[in-house]
Amino acid sequence: MSADRMWTTRVRERAVGALPPEKLLPDRQPAYVASWIYVFGVLTLAALVVILASGVVLGLKGPAWWHLTGIGRFFNGIHLWAVELFFFCMVIHLWGKFWMAAWRGGRARTWVSGAVTFLVGVGAAFTGYLSQQNFDSQWISTQAKDGLNSVGIGAFFNVTNFGQMYTFHVLLLPTVVLGLVVWHILLVRRHGVVPPFTRAALAASNAEEES
Amino acid sequence: MPPAVLAALVDLHRPAHVVHWHFFQMSVANVVVIVLMLLVFVLAIVLPFPGARRPS
After folding, report:
1. What is the DSSP letter of A157?
2. Interface of A with B in 37-96 (CB under 8 A)
């Protein structure tokens, strides 16, 4: 088989065509990126790294360790506060991108992948509450069960089943979040960071609406 | 007992304080987080970034 017919060749050429190395790992960014509002995406990523690292440690050591030892409670706290910072930064990132209409210039998939990451992240966080193995998680799971039953989706999964929710929390939902985040970053690299509105563009847009 | 410096700033062993106004009901902790997010959002827009040049 000739090299140009192999699927590996086709995939490689398509990948390099969509994201050449200088776009994948750029050494400079546009001047408008020098603003604090553009920092919150990477702060969200930093929090995600801490969440994953502390989560791996918690998963390896188990519930008795994270409840009964000082270092276990410390890692439990690190995991919780990294999640708090993750959502704190992600919400500010989302507000910033919403008000600059970050879906402009062919960036719709970048916007949608970010918004879906937020929604899946909420699920990942809620299953974390269910995985605590304490009275708090019991209370939350029964309240959630009533809520999910009332909207008709209680039959698809059982939030009072610890094993099921723990698998959702440590494997399924983190995998989805991580996959979406990687896709989101690759899309940002491919299409570039959305530029701020210029006065000329706003004036042209207003004139178009008035005509 | 953990050292006092590591203790929580508020007593966590009691029901949360709640902000309740007509239909709106939310724990004070959540209200504080939302207000902080709004504050940081505004600061991120208005504060100058180190090394950034203002457009002429």
Report:
1. -
2. 37, 39-40, 70, 84, 88, 91-92, 95-96
